[in-house]
Write a structure and sequence with these properties.
By secondary structure, the protein is an alpha+beta fold. It is built from three helices and four strands, in the order H-E-E-H-E-E-H. The strands form two sheets. It has a two-stranded antiparallel sheet with strand order 1-2. A two-stranded antiparallel ribbon has the order 3-4. The longest helix has 12 residues, at 99-110. The protein is extended, with a radius of gyration of 19 Å. 3% of the residues are buried. Bound molecules: iron/sulfur cluster (SF4). Iron/sulfur cluster is lined by residues 78, 80-82, 85, 87. Iron/sulfur cluster binds at residues 78, 80-82, 85, 87.
Amino acid sequence: LVNTLEAGKLPGVIPGIHFKRDDEIVSSPESPMIPDLDALPFPAHDLFKIDRYTNLQPLTDGWDPNARSFTILTSRGCPYKCTFCSKPVTGDTWRARSVESVVQEWKWLVKGLGRHRDRRHR
Ligand code: SF4
């Protein structure tokens, strides 16, 4: 978005965003779903104060004071339409990451974020 605005273009050229123009809410065309989830970098856990989020796991509370928990996203999308769900963000088509990619992210988390700054796994 910043690059688009700095280039003097209108934000409507970016798919999948909503913005306000005068008093009107404008929606750009829907963003295409990403079919190959393995092509995405791992989440940038190392770029924010992750310790504030990794000690919130009730299963390890009081058991191991040094335990940390992370969420690993293994797929996106779902063909169903439960009204309470946030899945419209990820689309109607279920796509899975490969086992190798998920295990690689898991190892990256377990072996220490500080030592493995390169989130690209390809
Ligand atoms: S809750 Fe969401 S992800 Fe689960 S079946 Fe319903 S729509 Fe799909």
